[in-house]
Amino acid sequence: MLVKVFYFLKKNLTYLLILYLVVQIIYVIFSPVKYQSDCLYYHKLAEQCIKAHTFYPAPQHLYEEYIIAPLYINLLIIVLSIHNSILSIGIMNIIFNMLQLFLLYKISEKLFDEGVAKITAVIYIFYLNNLGLVLLNFTELFFGVLVLASIYYFLKKQKYSWIFAGLFAGAAIAVRPLGWALVASYIIIYFYNIYKHRKSENYLSQLVGGVAIFIVLFGMFNFSHFGKFIYTATTGPADFIIGANNDATGAFNARVFEKGNIGYISHPEKMTYIEQGEYFKHQAINWIEHHPIKWLSLIPAKLMYMFLWDDISIPALFNLQNWDLLHVVKSVIKNKGLGKLMPGVYVFRKIFYLMIQAFNYLYYFLVVILIIGGLFYLKQQRGFNSDNEVIIIFCIIGTIMTMLVFGVPRFKYPYLIAALPFAAIKLKTMYNAKLVK
After folding, report:
1. Which of 128, 272, 324, 425 has the least CB density, counted as fewest CB within 10 Å?
2. How far is the C-alpha of 101 from the C-alpha of 95, rounded, in Å?
3. Which residues of the chain have pLDDT under 50?
């Protein structure tokens, strides 16, 4: 039954895409959300730079805790300079969401065929976090577009396409250092092919050159207005110490920066982001040296917070950002029931919200199972090759990099999206098996 539903939607993909675009526009125009957490911080940084008539980072950010997502913040500055409104960010996100969908379609088509590409698009549309992210101000959609664009050009294998793959990978690094996981996957595939087949396509110099060109140009651009060559975020040390201290739980926990803990700095305004980063890194490494077993024992918790929780943006669809599923569960346990859950919210809205949460989680775990099933299918059919292995290696290296810090649902988003073609190929095999019967 489920497979038939997907195939029905696949046949009507054009209408589904139009409806999906209309729903996004309605949400952005009529249901804007109030930014919180990172969404608010990114917006604040962009506004500061606009007022100072400069790009990010501005000189005043030298004494911040870190520099974050510099390419994304600069894009926000440009967008908000054209029209300073949350609506502008929403429209930008719609463009990114549709671009990400388009690139995923093209990648699926190159890896498999048009049928699998259409199924991938359907899977993407019904993963509701994609819709919710349009309302927020996170880096996920932009980062995803850059990663998928890089993979797409890598798969094109045409003259100069690998340079574009490198340029987009460099741009991904300029948003989040996790982009290095993609570059590493390209390099691993290159040398693996030399080892296994005694030959490989001569793309490494083009690809690395593309990465280097973007890093140099973007770094010099930042040097021109900031005075320092910076091309990516410097959040690593702060994230590192969050996952390496006595209060670490495997999830985000900022208590390490409170007075009396190893991440506390009495006068951070007197230290540059470089000095603060060095301090955090030193403290984290020192703690790990004294507590190696405890640090390693946090890995299962990090994986759990990363892969078992998935309401990345579902609360935004209902303007209930303080009520992700973890807070719902904590409230129910603490109050021994639903009575005090979401005070001030109409009962029907609560019920509908919880129903959508349930659907999202069931759908998410179904997609994960299908991805795993798709990978097993490819293994049985000896269908692995350097094209699809790039995505797999990117997901593995990215996850390992994340385990060095802490786990939150958002961190897995780029891996899940990149792996959707494997879920689609599994659905196609299931449909074909039913036809044979």
Report:
1. 272
2. 10
3. 436-437
Task: List, for residues 31-48, the tens digit of each pLDDT value.
Answer: 999 999 999 999 999 999
CA 219 – CA 226 distance, rounded (Å): 10
Buried b / exposed e over 418-430, threshold 16 CB at 10 Å, is bbbbbbbbbbbbe
**Count helices and strands in the chain by DSSP H and E runs:** 21, 0
Distance (Å) of CA 367 to CA 17, 119, 288, 358, 392: 20, 12, 36, 14, 16
pLDDT at residue 347 in the model: 87
Residues 144 and 414: beta-carbon distance below 8 Å = yes
Contact 114, 74 (CB under 8 A): no
Residues 218, 170 contacting (CB under 8 angstroms): yes
Domain boundaries, the chain: 2-436
The pLDDT score that the predictor gives to residue 197 is 74
Contact 134, 39 (CB under 8 A): no
pLDDT at 10: 85
Region of residue 353 (left: phi > 0; alpha: psi -120 to 50; beta: else): alpha
pTM, rounded to two decimals = 0.96
Residue type at 306? M
